[in-house]
Amino acid sequence: MIPSSFDYLAPRSIDEAVTLLKTHAGDAKILAGGQSLIPMLKLRLAEPAVLVDINRIPGLAYVEERDGALRIGALSREADLESSAIVRQWYQILVDTAAVIADPLVRNSATICGNIAHGDPGNDHPATMLALDATFVVRGAKGERQIPARDFFLGLFSTALDTDDILTEIVIPRPPERSGGVYLKLERKVGDYATAGVAAQVTLDETGGCARAGIGLTNVGAMPIAAVRAAEFLRNKPLDSATIAQAAEIAASEADPLEDRRGSPEYKRDVVRVLAMRALRLAAARAAGDSLPTPLPFTYAPAQPTMPS
Amino acid sequence: MSNHAIAVTVNGTTHRSEVESRLLLVHYLRENLRLTGTHIGCDTTHCGVCTVLLDGKPVKSCTLFAVQADGRNVSTVEGLELGGELHAVQKAFKEEHALQCGFCTPGMMMSAVALLERNPTPSELEIRQAISGNLCRCTGYVNIVKAIQSAAASMRAARHTPVYVPAQQEASPAAT
To answer: Which of A85, A114, A113, A83 is nearest to A99 (CA)?
Structure first.
């Protein structure tokens, strides 16, 4: 399949890229990792007149901590999260999330910022960013501004980004002591979008109660959903199994899924309930200091096949 | 529509071409350079038969424009054999019967090579995860995993020449 013709422009600075986006307002798309955009171009679901390739802009590929927060640049790839020592130590939920996105080949190209800016409710990072209370730094013709994750997603493939905006950086405050998070996903096969996914991030107080919880849901609505009622329910309660089960029920009620080939709304809501229960348990265990490995995605087949001897 | 002069180093040789912006890397390799070892399968970023190494990292060449590869290094299955000697991964795929129809094999081997150059002692799970973007509809993967384990052992035993050496970039005038 061959995309429609387009003009390819490769700016060398963010300012130049913003100017190009403004000049071609509405007719231009940003090309970063291209792992969602290029398939859409080939299927001709998108036929922009201009592609603005930001890959030649220096200084946008970084995953680093500065001023007490993790900063992820526009050209950082999913694989960079998996290999980052600082992310593995303090932000395990990001490793969990990256590890279940598409497949390792796609993750070598796909960018984290692109996963968010695309506005696809099936993408995995948005739920995690909601659970972590991330902020997005955006550069546009009017200058730079910061948009909290909870204000960013407006609808199906619709975000707070204007046509001349570039999402340049994700900022995630370092979770306090006694914090842990997990991302769990049910997928039909490797590389599939989630039947449902749940991101859970908790902070415990000195007595083991829940000082803060953040819960995000993937692919169970027109946009990523922050399960705020479930998170609020958990505040100042002990994270025992009865409380977690109740919170998971509330999270399931906050999902708003549609019927499709991945299942009925009732089924997907129940997947949210089960994943939320497991994710909260694992998040609490990590917060208490357990070092749990990155979870494998749940599939309909055994997750870990073994070799016949 | 725009045309672009590009210089892409493929298996150590720099090629200069004029390409249309929408030309995909896989079409550039197969049609412009006549390197047909890289296959086209699903054409929708799922199957991985078009896998090549871009600056040493495996990517799907159906999901990258040729113009994006300007100034960069591409390794394809044709570059695995060195001086008439098959790469350890190629030998192992042959010896362990890791293919039946062979359609996925070039992409599968490129993913395997990238894994073993990064991790000489992968576990079975790490191997399965590394090839999870490469679909095989014939073998059930069992012999593919065996072949990669066997290649890992022989690469550890012999001094292995990496397929992609970053220092080679200096030979390419386009790499800046």
So the answer is: A83
What DSSP designation does B141 have?
A: T
- What pLDDT sits at residue A305? 43
B57·A53 Cβ contact <8 A: no
Minimum-distance CB partner of B142 among A53, A102, A307:
A307
- Give residue-wise pLDDT tens across range B12-42: 999 999 999 999 999 999 999 999 999 999 9
Structure confidence at residue B4 (pLDDT): 98
CB A103 within 8 A of CB A187: no
- CB-count burial class (<10 Å; 0-12, 13-18, 19+) for B157: exposed
Closest residue in A to B133 (Cα–Cα): A103
pTM of the model: 0.93
Q: Could you tell me the residue ranges of all domains in chain A?
A: 7-56, 63-173, 179-287
Query: Domain A7-56, CATH 3.90.550.10 — does that match?
Result: no
Q: Could you report the per-residue pLDDT of B73-88, keeping only the tens digit for each?
A: 999 999 999 999 999 9
B1 in contact with A, Cβ within 8 Å? yes
Query: Closest partner residue to B45 among A5, A9, A106, by Cβ?
Result: A106
CA-CA distance, A57 to A21, in Å (whole number)?
Answer: 15
CATH architecture of B88-157: Orthogonal Bundle (1.10)
Query: Which residue in chain A has the smallest CA separation from B55?
Result: A108
- CATH architecture of the domain B3-79 equals Roll (3.10)
- Tell me: ipTM over 0.90: yes
CATH 3.30.465.10 fits A63-173, yes or no: yes
Q: What is the DSSP letter of B31?
A: I
Q: According to the model, what pLDDT value does residue A290 have?
A: 84
- From the CA atom positions of chain B, what is the Rg in Å? 16
Instruction: Give the strand pairing for B57-60 and B73-75.
Output: unpaired
Domain A179-287, second-level architecture:
2-Layer Sandwich (3.30)
Among candidate residues B130, B121, B114, B109, the one with its CA nearest the CA of residue B164: B114
